[in-house]
Amino acid sequence: MNRSLRAQAIDFAAHMRRRWYLYLPVFAIWAFAYTRLFIDPTPRVPVLFNWTGSLPYRVAWLQHGEHPLQRGEFVIFSFAGEARTAYPGLDGQPFFKVVRGLPGDVVTVSGRTVSVNGVVVGTAKAQAFDRRPLEPIAPTVIPPGHYYVQGTGPDSFDSRYRSSGLVRAEQVLGTVVPLF
């Protein structure tokens, strides 16, 4: 015999009250994840976790503060590329990448191969994970206040792509020291 849905809900609520200590961490993690994804994705603690394959590091230390960025430096920035229209969840999300191009550097594209100052930095894939086409970045001279950033993995979504583009200095949240 099936009990009513109301009776089951009352029993479950009583169970949760008795074992609140088990549910509290779960709800706290969900609340943190919801806030991070939908309200404010800005990192608030200096320890960062990289869940993607864009860089070989999984844990890093964030150093806030402005200073001129150097080639090879790891940065975290707030995403503001064109891809936000197709993927609204990317808007403002923190991305962890390496600075490969500085203001004044020349970005060239041959086919899908992207170079900065004549040095090949990567190949742009033809399509995203969901089969949407990806266009490589247009050849350009990096303007003042902008940076070319890139991950080390072949699937990294970075400045190789027009829909990601160059990163403005005001998007940079800080530099990052990879821990492991």
From TrEMBL:
It is found in: Periplasm. Gene3D superfamilies: Umud Fragment, subunit A. InterPro entries: LexA/Signal_pep-like_sf, Peptidase_S26, Peptidase_S26C_TraF. Residues 60-177 form the Peptidase S26 domain. GO terms for molecular function: serine-type endopeptidase activity. GO terms for cellular component: periplasmic space. The keyword Signal applies. Pfam families: Peptidase_S26 (PF10502). Its main location: periplasm. Belongs to the peptidase S26C family. This is Conjugative transfer signal peptidase TraF. The gene is traF.
